[in-house]
Amino acid sequence: MVYKPQFYPGATSVAENRRKHMSGNVEKLRDISDDDLTLILGHRAPGSDYPSTHPPLAEMGEPDCSVRQLVEATPGAKAGDRVRYVQFVDSMYNAPATPYFRSYAAAINFRGVDPGTLSGRQVVEARERDMEQLAKFQIETEMTDPALASLRGATVHGHSLRLPEDGLMFDMLDRCRKEGNIVIMHKDQVGRPIDKKVNLGKPMSEEEAAKRTTIYRVDNVAFRDDKEVIEWVHRVFDQRTIYGFKPE
Amino acid sequence: MSDASTNADYLQLEIFPSRLLSPSRAETLLNEIALLEGVVRFFVHGPRVPQTVPYGPATGETVDHPANKVIMVAGQEVDLEVSVGGIRLEVTDADVKEDIREICDRLLPFSYEFREGLFIPTKQTVTDYAKRGSDADPMLIGMADPKGKLRNKPICILNKKSE
Asked: Are B20 and A170 inside 8 Å of each other by CB?
């Protein structure tokens, strides 16, 4: 029998969405061009070559090493790219992803990434082209709603604040704005103005965000409603306690 | 030390909308409130919107946030340094409280919390003392923006008493 990972327990829509994020089996909702992505990440000029920190691995004459033979380097590592980051912030008001599930998605589905999970933000460090591949995946799919999630390299607060009237997560650096029925980004992720407005697509309606979220909330799907999740959380806590109990 | 700022019979109220208010809606709401007889004083609070990027690689870049606007309240210019997330008021009696509730019902298209409590300090704090000295106007007690600078005149006197 072939092993099929189950990822996450539960029968509610939130549990199902958590499984989707972890498995990488998410719906693609929008397109963002490579140049636009480069522009909003702000690490290099669009269209320029990837700066490198070392020569390509093929030219370096690596030592004979069984681990190197076993694990193929990622494209970014092969080319000697710099390590760069992408950082997302997700609103507590039914944003599709949360820092934990962005990290699960990155660590399970991408190689050569170093996800960092914090209470209000999630950062991934990787070789530049590997990081861009991950950023593009997360921005283009249902893991991101341009209104309730955003790229914020610095000054990340806003995830736990009430939404402004236009429904866009509060951002004190004003990186995104709603123009008509689309969200545009007119600054890069750290707040430097960029040459053009990058179209991030239509924001989700409140109903759609509630349907696609991975956040349990009492005003949407409550954590206590998911019997199977509760059972497993109890089991994990029980076993962790018993594991730590060591009578002499 | 200055005396306690408030009359013991005055009520303190807080309007806490479920969304951060746009400057135009905040302006309309504050103007209606300022026109009411019986509103002693009020202030707005919310997340700060800086003029320039405070830290990170873009430090010093102009932000130009849409919430950072100059609004007119009762004929006075008020430079909003925060995105309006709540309004705290002191009023003379319960009738004024109901008038304010009616204004909020009419002007806020989303839900809001409306509560009575103690939101403005009634005695001079050490900070107040340090900023204004021992003979400060009791009406200003507890009204300072903790992060504001006195030179930026963080308090506007809307209804100046005629001399």
From this structure: yes
Q: Among A162, A187, A192, select the one facing B85 at the smallest CB separation.
A: A162
Beta bridge partners of B78: B71
Among A142-146, B113-117, B122-126, which stretch is predicted with the lowest mean pLDDT? B122-126
* pLDDT for residue B138 is more than 90: no
CATH of the domain at B17: 3.30.70
Contacts of B132 (CB under 8 A, 6+ apart): B2, B140
Chain A to chain B Cβ contacts (< 8 Å) = 70
Type and span of the H or E element at A116: strand A113-117
Say whether B19 and A165 touch across the interface (CB within 8 A).
yes
DSSP alpha helix (H) spans, A51-202 = 57-60, 66-70, 75-79, 99-109, 128-140
ipTM of this complex? 0.88
Stretch (H or E) spanning A238? helix A227-244
- Is pLDDT at A41 greater than 90 in this prediction? yes
Structural domains of chain A sorted by starting position, each given as residue range(s) with its CATH number in brackets: 13-221 (3.90.320.20)
B105 domain-assigned = yes
**Number of domain units in chain B:** 1
* pLDDT at position B112 over 90: yes
> Which tokens in the block code for residue B15?
């309007």
